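Anyone? Bumping this.
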Amino acid sequence: MNLFSAKEITKHYANVTALQNVSIEVPQQSIFGLLGPNGAGKTTLIRIINQIIAPDNGTLLFDGRKLEAKDIFQIGYLPEERGLYKKMKVSEQSIYLAQLKGLSKQEAVKRLKYWFEKLNIESWWNKKVEELSKGMQQKIQFVVTIIHNPKLLIFDEPFSGLDPINVNIIKNEILNLRNQGATVIFSTHNMASVEELCDYIALINNSETILQGKMKDIKKAYKSNTYEVLFNNFKDDIKSILNPDFTLIEQNKDEDLIKAKIQIPKTYTSNDLIQTLLPHVSIHSFIEVLPTMNDIFIKKVNEN
Amino acid sequence: MKKIFLIIQREYLTRVKKKSFIIMTILGPILMAALFIIPAYISQKSDQEKTIGIVDETGIFQNKFSNDDNLTFKILNSDITTAKATFDESNLYAILYIPKTELSAPDSCILYSNKQPNIIIKNYIRNTIKKEVESLKLKASGIDEDILKSIKTSVKLSTIKLNEGGKEEKSNTELSMGIGFIAGFLIYIFIFMYGSMVMRGFIEEKSNRIVEILISSVKPFQLMMGKVVGIALVGLTQFILWVVFTFAIVGIYQTNFSIKNSDINKTQQNIVINQNLSQNSTAQLQNNNSDNSEVNQIIDAIKSIDFGVIILSFLFYFIGGYLLYAAMFAAIGAAVDNEADTQQFMLPITIPLIISLLMAQFVINNPDGPVAFWLSIIPFTSPIIMMVRIPFGVPVFDLTLSIVLLIGGFLFTTWLAAKIFRTGILMYGKKVNYKELWKWLKY
């Protein structure tokens, strides 16, 4: 079942088309990667989901019904352009933002204390924001985004400005939240984190969705039957032993190990490749090369 | 509604807790009270005592100079050359030399001093000599001194307002002018101060990048109105504290001051009694009386002014004018990225305000003329101009029309500003101009 879906969303700014018939379906309890090059319309779509701006056309469904104004209490949004009041105390400001999301003051304090302790930042409680580094502020913004236990979380570049240790902490928290039942829309240009986190993705380019679905299925659909083989004890040209239908994409020699990338036509299987190689070399490893999200992204966008 | 309240609360509390607010709140009344007290204090306090030596070859004038707190006259029993020679050691401020001369033309008097003597001293000496010469001349022509005294008259024109019920009420034009101008000026300052506070608030939120976080929880209109109302309350708080503190300081000063005053009155009375024998006494008494009647008149006039109406209308025109302009300030704050870009949009806001302030001086002289009427009706100028008119008494029709139009005016600017605000608040890195704003209005 889908927690959120947008159908045929269109949005124009004066003469510019930001979104043209864009549809996305975000399944319950999944991490949904919203991808696309700069200026593709991701931010506009996210703002429409947050009801910051209204679409010209299209329907938005939340939890099986039409998206309503009160649903903003069920959505937590960490925008890409984000910040905090510099002169305010961390505690005052987190409580204020939590209250704006509908929590009572006592409840806000209780939950904030819990999260500050969990993320080891309780010593910042009485500090002013201007005393904190950018990365520290990101952590506070993260806490504030999730404080009201929203059903739908939207993170726009959540890892920018964080060191690897904090990236890991936040990554794990996002996975935890998903496991506890939250649905996450995750927008980023960092394809490595998309591969790590996302269950589903949608790729938007030039105001349109050009690719959408389960990440595993997409990867499968884009695989090119390429294998990476590691072997040794071979002096001759590797091409001489290969079936002429196979293509050697690249090879490089490291000490006495040779690494070769070989693509085979769809009519062959991996076993055919192994069979060809076995009489000549001793294989150390054999692995299918799946396309990275990075490759798919670049390929699809360029095609488009 | 709850969210607007939360925003109002934050805007109010963070500003009221600021050091600059506390300092301004304390400093403001001290400055304002100083405006009342310092002139009084200075005029009361004697400045450095000066002694002027007199060398009067005629012998007529030397006793006519009376001493006061600041000025002492000392008759030098030497001729002018020795007086001049010993000037440096004598501690004198100046030497007044009146040579023996024709009574009809004593124009060869000389004031020697090592500094340029101040104008008050010069005038005092000149007047004393002039008066003496005049009375000598009059006496010479056979007019009695008593008649001379009785000729001196001071004319007072009392103004009395005839109210609708035929009730008479003492009024004082100068006082109404003063109150009207001060009230209008305060409104001008308050609109600018707190209006630009709204603008800076939004620029701050934009450059902090907190605005998108806020906008995902509250509607842009709520954010705008929350800040506008929150800052209005800051302004009202500051105003009320100022009024209370100013009155407190002036009050404390006055209690001390009036005790001193009664002391002075007592000594003055003693002097009067002592001098009763001398011929001057009658004139002095008369003077005292007339002074008193003037003070009483001012007190009467102050009593006649309806402070209830003035304070209520001040509050209304302050809030109304502020709301009208604050909405526009908010739109500018939302449209630009930094304060430097606000310049081009400030002009349409500043022009009506400055025109009001300039016209206020004209309206004060003619508070019932057509210019006063129109400017106090148009919402953009009415907050200042109507406040200038109110102490003079304004017809109910004018007042009602002005109030209704002002309410309509701020509803209109708020509606307009909200449209610009909505688009501008999430716009970054775009050089905004009027054409752009016009496009936003149509989104």
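Late reply, but here is one note on the structure posted above: The first strand of chain A starts at residue 2 and ends at 13.
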